[in-house]
Amino acid sequence: MKKLFIMILTIFAIVSLVTTFSFIGCKAAPSEEVTGTSAAETTTAKETAVSKETTAAEETVEAPELKGEIEIFSWWTAGADGDALAALIDAFSEKYPTVEVINAAVGSGGAGIDAKPILVTRVQGGNPPDTFQVHAGHELIDTWVVADLMEPVTFLFDENDWREVYPGDLIEILSYNGEIWSVPLNIMPANILWYNKKIFEDAGLNPPKTIDEFYSVCETLKENGITPMAYANKGSWANAQLFEVLLAAIAGPDNYKALFNGAMRWDSDEVKETLNTMLKFIEYSNEDHAALEWDNATELVANGKAAMYISGDWCNGYFKKLGLTPGEDYGFVPSPGTEGIYIALSDSFGLPKGIQNRPATVEWLKFIGSKEAQDIFNPIKGSIPPRTDCDKSEYDAYQQYSMEIYSTSKILPSLTHGAAASEPWLVAIEDVLVNFVVTGDIEGTAAELQRVAEDVGTFTK
Ligand code: GAL
Asked: Which atom of ligand 1 sits closest to the CA of residue 347?
């Protein structure tokens, strides 16, 4: 299945799938047709010239009534991800009651491990959802944009003055060939160590800042009969995520970047040390990790069955859903060795070509890019809004912390969550790491990582 997926993605990157589904009628309509704003402005100017008596109510030209269904594809079902999406859909439906939103979230499988191959199959079969969750960075550009499957959304940024409220570096990540290709909904770090505060207090421990401190904290916890680290690698993505956070700590930000731009070899000592450390970390975790997903691991920490879990801030949303309070019941620090580093990812939605309901989809994209929508979605999801004008008071203690470290840290692109490498490269790395956690073969794995970097580690930007 994985091989098929890699093949399909590679084909996408090389050949545009013009023949697999019809692009007829999907040429971008002039932006005035899809947003009430410009039409309203034009009419307002005209009417003012005709009669100064005209009332404001008469001046307002309603956008053409939107109708039909729109299908929103994502993998947001677990933890509080599903709740955040549901709240977003509810708010949109309230505004546009004539549009029926089909929530096409694919259950199970964090990081889109199950959803992404289904999406590819649907698009290949000529049945794309109206819009889909896609990570900013190489996942968006290398998979979908270079294959000519998306329409740019630059017009939304221009019409809504979004360049003033979205960080320039994020816009840069969403851009290719002078156009912007998706609307970002959130920003998250992958390298947070979540810990159960009561366990740490009872054991008289502080959360570990370095890898050596991590080991010594783990030893004390073990002596106290507590599983030090929660781990869940049912989907192959979790190995890649642990690998990337340890790589950032051990190799450092410059080498991390160098590995992904071809300036450093994957069979280097830094990568080997990362692999070795990864094995040691997993040894400190629950034995049933291969049967668990990220929400199960979060529960282990929430219930006091394990002391720590390293993952992204979808855990924050889930801890809260379980009734816990950030900063009181659970703590959060950068994963060992990554203070000052923010391994970033961002969920976004784009405008595929050939969709059923372009007008309503454009309105959905405009909505999710708004301050209102981002302040509904992110407080529940646990992440932070990419917009810089959001209402900070809506956000919890963890999110305030995340906003702070986002603005002060070195930003590295997440490998696992589509920002650092193309999808075929990521999938190949995940396969190598799945074998690695079984074999423990450091030399062979480093050599394999170098081989896949040479075979599929290509860049388009
Ligand atoms: C990430 C995604 C997050 C969250 C997480 C766990 O890839 O960006 O929003 O869903 O996976 O599934």
From this structure: 8
Q: Is 81 in the pocket of ligand 1 (CB under 6 A)?
A: yes
Residue nearest to atom 12 of ligand 1 (CA): 110
Under 8 Å between Cβ of 38 and 63:
no
Global pTM value: 0.87
Ligand 1 pocket mutation, candidates 73, 75, 245, criterion most atoms within 8 A of CB: 75
Q: Where are the domains of the chain?
A: 2-49+62-187+346-395, 189-344+414-456
Among 118, 131, 128, 140, residue whose Cα is nearest residue 21: 128
Instruction: Name the residue among 78, 110, 135 with its Cα closest to residue 239.
Output: 110
CATH number 2.40.170.20 is the correct assignment for the domain at 189-344+414-456: no
Q: Is 352 helix (H, G, I), strand (E, B) or coil?
A: strand
Q: What is the CATH code for 2-49+62-187+346-395?
A: 3.40.190.10
Per-residue pLDDT tens over the stretch 354-387 = 999 999 999 999 999 999 999 999 999 999 999 9
Residue 169: partners with Cβ closer than 8 Å, 6 or more residues away = 411
